[in-house]
Design goal:
With 194 residues, the chain is mostly helical. The chain folds into two domains: 84 residues, Rna Polymerase Sigma Factor, Chain: A; 88 residues, Winged helix-like DNA-binding domain superfamily/Winged helix DNA-binding domain (Arc Repressor Mutant, subunit A), CATH 1.10.10.10. 67% of the residues lie in helices and 0% in strands.
Length: 194
């Protein structure tokens, strides 16, 4: 007789476990620390010390509000929303402009942008590197940048992006479409400048 395979608990199960025994919160921290550090870095919190401060604020706020977690949502959407808000708060406190930071994900975004499915038919060099993608992302409107980062660098689906940014699902598609066009135009401008 085979032993049943024990799968790790889902995020939502871990939330319930944490509400009964606070020691389980560490598992949630372990699951999300690297992902959220990468996300806030891409949003522009680049200094490692600032990242640690923002991460600490994210997990502190998450822990304090765990009782208020809406179980009809995905935990990942909820914590990414907290991370988004904490990054924005950090910008306001520091009075700085986001300076996005991308690490080697340019191939996926380039492949996505060069797909012939929308009005952004711009032909550009497919060897665009992460630095050029980063510079181009900084040139597009923030509302588009956030959606593009969540969709193509954090691999969130439309429903999750809707939950994180508190916008209708239909708006996610619209923002992605317009963001793709702006990003393609910005990348073309980078190519012309070089």
């Amino acid at each position: 007789m085979e032993q049943p395979l024990h799968l790790p608990p889902s995020d939502e199960e871990l939330v319930k476990m944490t509400l009964q025994d606070k020691s389980h919160f560490g598992v949630l921290v372990d699951r999300y620390q690297a992902k959220l550090a990468r996300y806030i870095a891409r949003l522009g919190v680049r200094d490692p010390e600032d990242q640690m401060d923002v991460l600490q604020d994210i997990f502190l706020k998450t822990y304090r509000n765990l009782n208020g977690f809406d179980t009809s949502l995905h935990f990942s959407s909820w914590i990414y929303r907290i991370a988004h808000n904490e990054a924005i708060s950090w910008y306001r406190k520091k009075n700085v402009r986001p300076e996005g930071h991308l690490i080697g994900d340019s191939e996926e975004i380039i492949g996505f942008l060069s797909a012939k499915d929308e009005s952004a038919d711009a032909q550009f060099d497919k060897t665009v590197n992460a630095k050029e993608v980063n510079e181009a992302l900084l040139k597009i409107d923030e509302k588009y940048r956030e959606v593009i980062i969540l969709r193509f660098f954090e691999h969130k689906d439309y429903d999750e992006i809707s939950d994180i940014l508190k916008i209708p699902v239909g708006s996610v598609g619209t923002l992605l479409h317009r963001g793709k066009k702006q990003l393609a135009d910005a990348l073309n401008q980078e190519a012309i400048r070089i």
